[in-house]
């Protein structure tokens, strides 16, 4: 259970420096990782490595690299036929962060007598196939893909089943867990390898946030809904009016200097886009981290941060300066809740550079998630310009996106064959826009959008302030997983 005030949020997205003029790519693959940092929640594990193939889909090379994973076998009982492997499909970052994040896995492992494994995603953390050269050239970075990562996990599972074999070689159930991109991987590994993965919990997994599957404006619509539900319509209107207010003041004599002074930026603004990007990020991240208890993002966040932000946005004035003064008070909840920050650092959006190079690359190859705004939300109108995005990707990584890659690879929305996958989403989570919110087969479970829940809240350690929807969902997960591990026998 996470003690109040001991949460930390790590946010990852492609670097904006290469895409500042591309309003449509601002949130191409934005995810948040929230994890406990309390000393009482330092989970025990051993750090190991596994030699996995560099390329699982060729017969011409046997090159390998060392994939890092974390393991705890203290609850494992090879004499019990139902003892499973709890396998976390690592996301876009250092695997130790995800281990700290997924409290549900640790809470349930003793009761299930589970072998706990957190596998690091290739090209993230310490699992770099070419070390410091991994992102210097496409000939090195070209082995980074979700499909290669899934194959890594499958080979690691096969290895673990050999090391931790059961009495009489009884079958070993494997339950995959993952949140956000890790949740996408948890779903896909069950789809691709149903003979190896017994079942999966895919928390806040936007597997439908791709071209032709979800409208590009859905993400900002859900974010706006979160602010309206948790805050107020006046809050939404004030944020919507702020973009024009920035334009108006920035165009006036001394306007950028006034904005800089009002927002207490660490340096004088030279471009209004920098502030707009920061505010855009702040509002989206506040919605994703809209938890019922205090958390930490750059600085401390209160419980229900969207509500706290909206309390500051109470103005009904149409005066641009009054609007922006109100916006500053609201965004101060995000970057300076404790009042200890001396200035607003606009380019410090990533507190821990989580998977920055790797996710930027994946966003420019396979993880092409269209996000736009048609002018009917609290955000500024923006287009999804695939050609501009492609050109920017080529300039930065020497690769171009394959728009239909993921859709064709993992079955798009044709999931009637899917079984033993739990798709969970939070009603307040912007990424629920691309999540599975309705039943796709008779043998999968969909929680819909859990009321009062933000980004993969259900995967985290339990907390007394968790909403009833999350508590009920976890009870259903547990019953299903108990059923899965018995069905394999």
From TrEMBL:
* Cross-referenced InterPro entries: AB_hydrolase_fold, Peptidase_S28, Ser_carbopepase_S28_SKS
Q: What class of enzyme is it?
A: hydrolase
SUPFAM superfamilies found in the cross-reference section: alpha/beta-Hydrolases
Instruction: Give the EC number(s) listed in the UniProt record.
Output: 3.4.16.2
Cell compartment(s), UniProt: Lysosome
Protein's job: Cleaves C-terminal amino acids linked to proline in peptides such as angiotensin II, III and des-Arg9-bradykinin. This cleavage occurs at acidic pH, but enzymatic activity is retained with some substrates at neutral pH.
Keyword list, A-Z: Carboxypeptidase, Disulfide bond, Glycoprotein, Hydrolase, Lysosome, Protease, Signal, Zymogen
Instruction: Please indicate if the UniProt record lists Transport as a keyword.
Output: no
- Summary of subunit composition and partner proteins: Homodimer.
Pfam family of the protein (one)? Peptidase_S28
> Which GO BP annotation is one of this protein's?
proteolysis
Q: Which organism is it from?
A: Lygus hesperus (Western plant bug)
Q: What is the lineage of its organism?
A: Eukaryota, Metazoa, Ecdysozoa, Arthropoda, Hexapoda
UniProt-recorded name of the protein: Lysosomal Pro-X carboxypeptidase
Residues annotated as signal peptide = none
The encoding gene = PRCP_0
């Amino acid at each position: 259970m996470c003690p109040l005030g001991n949460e930390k949020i790590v946010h990852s997205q492609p670097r904006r420096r290469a895409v500042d003029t591309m309003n449509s790519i601002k949130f191409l693959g934005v995810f948040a990782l929230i994890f406990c940092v309390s000393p009482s929640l330092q989970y025990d594990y051993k750090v190991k490595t596994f030699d996995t193939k560099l390329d699982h889909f060729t017969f011409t090379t046997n090159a390998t690299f060392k994939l890092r994973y974390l393991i705890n076998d203290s609850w494992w009982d090879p004499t019990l036929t139902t003892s499973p492997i709890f396998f976390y499909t690592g996301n876009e970052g250092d695997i130790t962060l995800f281990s700290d994040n997924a409290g549900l896995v640790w809470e349930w492992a003793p009761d299930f007598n589970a072998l706990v494994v957190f596998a690091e995603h290739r090209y993230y953390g310490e699992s770099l196939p070419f070390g410091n050269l991994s992102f210097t050239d496409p000939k090195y970075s070209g082995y980074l893909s979700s499909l290669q990562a899934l194959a890594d996990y499958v080979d690691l599972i096969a290895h673990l089943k050999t090391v931790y074999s059961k009495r009489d070689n009884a079958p070993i159930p494997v339950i995959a867990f993952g949140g956000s991109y890790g949740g996408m991987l948890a779903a896909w590994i069950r789809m691709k390898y149903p003979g190896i993965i017994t079942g999966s919990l895919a928390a806040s997994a936007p597997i439908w946030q791709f071209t032709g599957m979800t409208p590009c404006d859905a993400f900002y619509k859900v974010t706006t809904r979160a602010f309206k539900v948790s805050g107020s319509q006046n809050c939404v209107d004030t944020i919507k009016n702020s973009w024009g207010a920035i334009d108006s003041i920035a165009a006036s004599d001394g306007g950028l200097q006034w904005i800089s002074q009002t927002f207490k930026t660490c340096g004088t603004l030279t471009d209004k886009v920098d502030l707009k990007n920061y505010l855009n990020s702040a509002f989206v991240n506040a919605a994703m981290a809209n938890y019922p208890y205090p958390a930490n993002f750059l600085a401390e966040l209160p419980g229900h941060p969207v509500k706290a932000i909206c309390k500051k946005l109470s103005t009904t004035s149409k005066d641009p300066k009054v609007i922006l003064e109100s916006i500053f008070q609201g965004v101060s909840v995000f970057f300076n809740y404790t009042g200890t920050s001396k200035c607003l650092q606009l380019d410090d959006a990533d507190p821990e550079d989580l998977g920055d190079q790797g996710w930027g690359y994946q966003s420019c190859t396979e993880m092409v998630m269209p996000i736009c705004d048609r002018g009917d939300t609290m955000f500024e109108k923006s287009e999804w310009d695939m050609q501009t995005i492609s050109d920017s990707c080529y300039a930065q990584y020497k690769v171009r996106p394959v728009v239909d890659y993921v859709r064709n690879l993992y079955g798009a929305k044709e999931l009637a064959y899917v079984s033993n996958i739990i798709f969970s989403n939070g009603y307040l989570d912007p990424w629920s826009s691309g999540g599975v919110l309705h039943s796709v087969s008779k043998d999968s479970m969909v929680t819909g959008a859990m009321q009062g829940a933000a980004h993969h809240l259900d995967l985290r350690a339990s907390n007394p302030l968790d909403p009833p929807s999350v508590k009920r969902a976890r009870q259903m997960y547990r019953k299903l997983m108990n059923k899965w591990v018995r069905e394999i026998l």
